[in-house]
Design goal:
heterodimer, A: alpha/beta, Rossmann fold, five-stranded mixed sheet, two-stranded antiparallel ribbon, 7 strands, 38% helix, globular, B: alpha+beta, three-stranded antiparallel sheet, 15 strands, 13% strand
Chain lengths: 177, 568
């Protein structure tokens, strides 16, 4: 069975830099992933995420990205453009994402399908929580991840009841996610 | 005279800047500056000393564990707690795993590209690469087919116009001297080392619950239950898993890392005469091989001064002081005082230029690192210091490997006082540790089998058992060198806390007497072919394994725009 990795990236301590993580956390609260889908808070782990990436047939990265357009603008990149953007256009943790993608491609282990769902950040200063423009774009960002997953044959289902409270959940709330 | 600024751009962290004057093709002076304030010492004041290690460990996420170890030792020293043998063994295993992983990553991922020209690897003949690889090691990944595959992936990668991890180096620089085949072999091992290090450090996840920042330390021992027969404990199964990891590490280090270092060093023997620096070497010693106070240390302590290996001095920690003459701190007694860390002060006071700036005023204060001194002298710390002191002490395993490396390269012991010496010493330390780890694991297994399941001394856990006031010092040989934590406990809480970390010894600025720190001194006389591409400066700086992301191959030479450099 094919597998899909959805990877939220960024540093939640640096405001909008953490939007990728915020999106995956919010996504999991409301939606149930299909079988073969793994949703992961990749933080700023960089190369340590290589085994996760290597075993996926497709990956959707969710991240803050520098691009034309005002803060909150959604950006979609795929395949080669993702690695290219990682070098110059992702945020504070850009080098760690570039490391990950470069390592995967040098080792011949990059997933055949790669999509990035990004949003233009407003602020990357050292604080918890998203800026208003990025917080406003969060539902649309989540929608775009859901669409990409569906297009890859892995649609999410809306949860019938609220996700059980876990230790992770407490931590996420503490971090304002 | 050209003024060069090497200000490495950070990955996530990273805060080392070096300014150097170059005249007639050689460095005539250098200044090392850390551009970031640490301040964990201030965060620790007023806290429960039993919690200190959790905070202190966060000083660094690269050499994780080291500040936890130094911290618990300082508190144990203050309150008189005595970790039992199993805790000592677990700590030795955790520490040595840290060193092994860190050294492999340093050599392949942070330093090799100063010596290995990746672009040249594209013109290598895979068949000749295979012969070369088979001539230096019996490592199985050495076929023509294997190197053909690596070369093809590298070519696809570089043809795409993205050098990625290989960007921002000085490919084609005349100081690169390896033949294309050696370059291709090294690139293949660079990639293999990515997998090796990630697999090996599972040892930390097994013993510490997670990596980085292990969670199983405890003042007085470890928080890891040991019992050969219990599922929820460190049991016989765990020992078996650890043994597999340690054996794999020994395999990789003895059949890949060591042969690579010797092969590469053979082409760069002139670097055995460059980069020595202060020539004083300090080692606190570590890896206790017994449980009584004063038990022998697997890596012995000692001091070598002025590159004189005929004499070994005892270490007296009371002779350590720190100066803030050139550091952005105030001392109550003024800039001309030098304080022992037990009386140390952390009062940050930035007086440098407002960033971004072109140049530091190096006549005034110019670093966030203080200047640690022993007997008023700068000291180099790290694997080279440790291997020198062990060698001079007659340590059998160290002696065997050092003599082996020296004779393979056809050089004498003085070649160790150099940039190349640091690289060789780090590799030798790695293999000595992978050999020793097996016996610590055996000892742990034997203790457990014999029914000794003690893991924690809780006789001093209750603060009611502590003196009203106590001082403690905790020493550790971290991958990058001698690490010390000093704690002052009063009424059950931390009254004062000071750390002197290895990179402060090595990268610190000039002191009150104007003496250069080890980085600064090591650069004097370094040849620089092209000031716009100061590869030679990086070689010596990186040989110290700077813990400040200086290892990153991203360099902003003065007035060049960073992003533009990155995209080249």
């Amino acid at each position: 069975m094919s597998s899909l990795l959805i990877l939220g990236l960024g540093n939640v301590l640096c405001a909008d830099d953490g939007v990728g993580v915020a999106a995956t956390v919010a996504l999991l609260r409301r939606y149930q992933p299909a079988r073969g889908v793994r949703v992961l808070d990749g933080g700023t782990l960089g190369l340590s995420l290589l085994p996760e990436l290597a075993r996926a047939d497709a990956a959707i990265l969710v991240d803050a990205i520098r691009a034309d357009g005002p803060p909150g603008t959604l950006v979609r990149l795929e395949q080669e453009d993702v690695a290219r953007a990682a070098i110059s256009r992702l945020s504070v943790h850009q080098v760690s994402v570039a490391d990950l993608l470069d390592g995967a491609s040098l080792l011949g282990r990059c997933p055949p399908r790669l999509v990035l769902c990004g949003v233009v950040p407003e602020s990357m200063e050292l604080r918890l929580g998203l800026s208003p423009s990025v917080a406003a774009a969060l539902p649309a960002l989540i929608e775009s991840v859901l669409r990409e997953a569906a297009a890859l044959g892995k649609p999410f289902r809306e949860r019938r009841r609220k996700q059980n409270v876990s230790v992770d959940d407490d931590i996420h709330r503490l971090l304002g996610l | 005279m050209t003024h060069i600024v090497v200000d490495p751009v950070t990955r996530i962290e990273g805060h080392l800047r070096v300014e150097a004057e170059v005249d007639h093709g050689a460095v005539t002076d250098a200044w090392s500056s850390s551009t970031m304030f640490r301040g964990i010492e201030l965060i620790l004041k007023g806290r429960d000393p039993r919690d200190a290690w959790l905070f202190a460990q966060r000083i660094c996420g690269v050499c994780t564990t080291v500040h936890a170890i130094a911290s618990i030792r300082s508190v144990e020293n203050a309150i008189g707690a005595r970790p039992p043998p199993n805790a000592r063994l677990l700590r030795n295993l955790i520490q040595s795993a840290q060193a092994v992983q860190d050294h492999v990553v340093h050599f392949y991922h942070l330093h090799a590209l100063d010596w290995v020209d990746v672009v040249s690897a594209l013109s290598a003949d895979p068949a000749k690469t295979s012969s070369l690889a088979e001539s230096i090691s019996d490592w199985p990944l050495s076929s023509t087919k294997y190197f053909t595959g690596v070369k093809a992936r590298l070519k696809t990668f570089i043809d795409r116009g993205q050098l990625g991890p290989f960007a921002n180096a000085y490919w084609g620089h005349p100081a690169y001297r390896l033949p294309p085949e050696a370059n291709l072999m090294a690139v293949a091992h660079y990639l293999e080392a990515l997998d090796f290090q990630r697999e090996f450090i599972k040892l930390h996840a097994i013993l510490g619950g997670k990596n980085p920042h292990l969670q199983s330390f405890l003042v007085g021992g470890m928080a890891t239950p040991v019992d050969p027969d219990k599922q929820a404990s460190l049991n016989t199964g765990t020992i078996a898993k650890l043994r597999v990891l340690i054996n794999k590490a020994h395999d990789f280090v003895s059949r890949v890392y060591i042969p690579d270092v010797l092969a590469i060093a053979g082409f760069y023997k002139d670097w055995a005469g460059i980069g020595a620096g202060v020539g004083n070497y300090l080692v606190y010693g570590d890896y206790p091989d017994g449980d009584e106070p004063g038990a022998p240390l697997f890596f012995p302590s000692g001091i070598i001064r002025g590159r004189d290996i005929s004499k070994l001095e005892r270490v007296d920690p009371l002779r350590i002081t720190e100066s803030v003459k050139h550091a952005w701190y105030d001392y109550r007694g003024g800039d001309d005082t030098a304080l022992h860390p037990s009386q140390g002060e952390t009062q940050p006071h930035y007086t440098g230029p407002k960033p971004p700036f072109e140049r530091l005023d190096t006549n005034a204060k110019y670093s966030w690192l203080k200047s640690p001194r022993y007997d008023g002298q700068p000291m180099e710390v790290g694997p080279l210091s440790r291997m020198l002191v062990a060698y001079v002490s007659g340590h059998p395993q160290v002696k065997k490997h050092v003599d082996g490396a020296l004779s393979a390269l056809g050089v004498g012991p003085t070649a160790l006082f150099s940039t190349l010496g640091r690289i060789a010493a780090r590799a030798i330390e790695t293999i000595v540790l992978t050999e020793k780890m097996q016996s610590w694991l055996d000892e742990l297994g034997a203790n457990m089998a014999g029914g000794d399941l003690r893991i924690h001394d809780n006789s001093k856990w209750d603060p009611a058992t502590w003196p009203k006031e106590a001082f403690g010092a905790g020493f550790h040989e971290a991958p990058r060198g001698a690490l010390g934590h000093w704690v002052h406990i009063k009424d059950g809480v931390i009254a004062n806390y000071q750390c002197i970390v290895p990179s402060t010894w090595n990268a610190g600025p000039r002191d009150g007497a104007g003496l250069r720190g080890p980085y600064e001194a090591s650069l004097l006389g370094t040849p620089v072919h092209d000031p716009e591409q100061p590869l030679e400066i990086l070689r010596t700086l990186h040989s110290f394994d700077p813990c400040m992301a200086c290892g990153v191959h991203v360099v902003d030479v003065k007035r060049r725009e960073i992003v533009r450099v990155r995209m080249q």
